[in-house]
Amino acid sequence: MQAAATKEAELIRRIVAGEKELFHELIRPYERMVYLTVLSIVKNETDAEDAAQEAVINAYRHLDSFRAESKFSTWLTTIAINEGRKRLRKAKSAAEESLEEAAEEKEGDYTPAPLTDWREIPLEALERRELREALRRAVASLPEIYKQVFTLRDLENLNTEETAEALGLTAGVVKVRLHRARILLQKQLVPFLKTAAPARKGLFRRAL
Amino acid sequence: MKLNCKHVWEHISEFIDGSVDAQLRAEIERHLEHCEICSAILDSTRNILILTADDRTFELPVGFSERLHERLKKEIEGSEPELKKK
Ligand SMILES: [Zn+2]
């Protein structure tokens, strides 16, 4: 990890010093992260690809303003978030946006769904394509504020502090939103988790 | 204090992340030993996170990388000092 970070710092130094084509190499490990970040904000894949390209170009143009005190991945994530939000603002009015935020912040039911037959489900069930597809759809359908936190924390493995920094939130808010996102996904995926198990007689008990 | 299921659910996310304090962790673990419902909820949530982290779940669009680097190439060439001169 430390060696990788040193190599990255060296790459950045060389790019800023003029070896610009090395930026291809610098960005390669982060392509997925940039794309998934903007996808958590904009509405469709075409917009996401466009915004992701724009974010990478922005990062390239402003690389000399990157300061080593923060991690390159966090810096890049912030750029991607800004680009995604810019797109989103174009698509809808600010009034609409704040209405939506208010609606999302309201107290909802964030209790998980019980499933008593989970224990019998083999890990191989996770290999099933339908389950992956269901998870993609469930994440896409999350309210934006939860989707963004979930994407940074659980898809991109940023820690709580990095996520808070990138989204301009407190660590406490990040934790609450992550918790709710995970519970909402658990609830939505329970039916798939149940049917993912091979149907054997007597295996399923009635959920409480 | 004896934990009930609802308490466990409230802390499930932090429990997974290992960010609950030692005492609460011990209490939750004790509860999980005898509560099948909470164990199943914990396992299913954990499995969703495993699936989320699987690269095959959230894939890049086909050709994404090629298109990105093509665009970047143009940008880098366009910003070369000799080309920038007006
Ligand atoms: Zn319980």
Describe what you observe in this structure.
The complex is a heterodimer of chains A (208) and B (86). Chain A has 208 residues and is an all-alpha fold. Chain A has 2 domains: 2-92, Orthogonal Bundle (Rna Polymerase Sigma Factor, Chain: A); 103-207, Orthogonal Bundle (Arc Repressor Mutant, subunit A). In chain A, 65% of the residues lie in helices and 0% in strands. Chain A has 10 helices and no strands. The longest helix of chain A has 25 residues, at 171-195. Chain A is globular. The termini of chain A are far apart. In chain A, 34% of the residues are buried. Mean pLDDT of chain A is 84; it is low at 196-208. Chain B has 86 residues and is an all-alpha fold. Chain B has one domain (5-85). In chain B, 72% of the residues lie in helices and 0% in strands. Chain B is built from 6 helices and no strands. Chain B has helices spanning 5-10, 12-17, 22-34, 36-53, 64-78, 81-84. In chain B, helix 3 crosses helix 4 (36-53). Chain B is elongated, with a radius of gyration of 25 Å. The A-B interface holds A 20-21, 23-24, 27-28, 31-32, 35-36, 45, 49, 52-53, 56-57, 60-61, 111-119, 123, 126, 131-132, 135-136, 139, 154-155, 157, 160, 175, 178-179, 182-183, 185-186, 189-190, 193, 208 and B 6, 9, 12-14, 16, 19, 36-37, 39-41, 43-45, 47-58, 60-61, 64-65, 67-69, 71-73, 75-76, 79-80. The structure holds zinc ion (ZN).
Order of SSEs of chain A = HHHHHHHHHH
Query: Overall mean pLDDT score of chain B?
Result: 88
End-to-end separation of chain A: 46 Å
Sheet/helix structural class of chain A: mainly alpha
- C-alpha Rg of chain A, in Å? 20 Å
From the structure provided, what is the oligomeric state, counting identical versus distinct chains? Answer: heterodimer
The unreliable regions of chain A are: 196-208
